[in-house]
Amino acid sequence: MFIDYRTVQDHARGQWLDIFRSLAPALDDAVSKNGRHVRCPNPQHDSPDGFRLFKDSNETGGGICSSCGSFAGGISLLQWVNDWDFKTTINQLAGHLNLTSQDTVKPVQRSVQQVHRPLSDEEKKKGEQRKKQMNAIWQESLPLEHAESEVGRMYFVRRGFSATRHIVGLKPVIRFHPAMPYYHEGTCQGNMPCLVSLVSDKAGKPVTLHRTFLDKEGKKLSPNAFPWKESAPSAKKIMPLPPGVSMTGGAIRIGEPGAILGVAEGIETALAVSVTTGQTVWPCVSASMLQKFIPPAGVREIWIWCDLDRSKAGVKAAHALKSQLTNKGIQCRVNVPPMPLVDGEKSRDWADVMTAMGRMGFPAFRTH
């Protein structure tokens, strides 16, 4: 039985919060705090405040995650959060709304250009404002080699990198902002030192900024820096994308790719692999982004350097990416840190391996 999605949308309007309560338990926290930032429901994205439903979500069903992307309507949001295909989502909604095929007609197949509606004037204006804001932040930021970027250099030194050798190649895509405003639930909590990284989409076009907030000693910002206790803030945030823009498939492009390219979750992991093996490695920001990475033309082999964590999100994302790329004829290799987790440890990455084991902890890397 095929249900017309347009009829489903019409019947769901004004009922999306109730629908989410019934069909998507993972959204319970977001529904109860509608419009406020909550933990991302994607188990592969460990962000304590990266997701929120739009304030008009009961009408539209829309929501956004700082790393996973924006979902304009309830159908796409349900597909994402429940890992459903389009047909399953429509049938589940039709069952919840008590619709049958007699209520609907089979939709006409439309081209991609027709499916994606043009941006409204308000959305275009918002997009230009966001681009202007990000450009201003990038211009205000300093190269890591700058005398006033010491706190940013200290962050990398604490992870085992050389302040004079290893950060030189980061200059085009990673900078330091001495006083970045930190927002929590719409309120500025103060200005913090911050690493600012340029995130590009699958075509290589810069689309947003990834920020790592630090304290004055060059440590990643701790929840203890803030007075609230109800939700731990995230030290890593991505600036909202302009409407109509997607970073799916993209990464932070540190260095030029060759026939072989490495990908990882975090900046520190990518840099550790690069300085230890000489391989060009691009950080994809998160496990969920890693899973969706799309290699640029000319790359014929991908080395996936995943994190080892108790949730196994990194390993699962790595193998999901390997499966997708292998089906497209691209060779893949998954590399997992060879150091087991000990009690109290949440995760290990390749920066930990570099610090503890040096070159001996890394597999041999061939350049051709």
From TrEMBL:
Annotated InterPro entries: DUF7146 (IPR055570), Phage_T7_Gp4_N (IPR013237), TOPRIM_dom (IPR006171)
Annotated DNA primase/helicase Gp4 N-terminal Bacteriophage T7-like domain residues: 35-75
SUPFAM superfamilies per UniProt: Zinc beta-ribbon
Superkingdom to which the source organism belongs: Bacteria
Pfam families: DUF7146 (PF23639), Toprim_3 (PF13362), Zn_Ribbon_Prim (PF08273)
Name this polypeptide is given: Toprim domain-containing protein
Record organism: Kistimonas scapharcae
